[in-house]
Amino acid sequence: MKVQPTTSLPADTMVGSYRLLGQIGRGGMGTVYRAEQVSLQREVAVKILHPKRMVDPRAVDSFLREAQIAAALSHHHLVPVYDVGFDEILGVHYYAMKYVSGRTLSTVVAQEGPISLDNAIILMEQVGAALGHAHNQGIVHRDLKPGNIILSDSGQAIVTDLGLAMDRLADQTSASKRILKLVGTAEYAAPEQLRNPDRATAAADVWAMGATLYYLLTGSEPFNGETLLDLVVAVATEEPPLMAGLPAEAQRLLAHFMAKDPARRPPNGHAAQGILETLRRPAQNAGALSIQRRRPVNVARATVARRRRR
Question: Can 143 be counted among the known catalytic residues?
Answer without folding.
Answer: yes
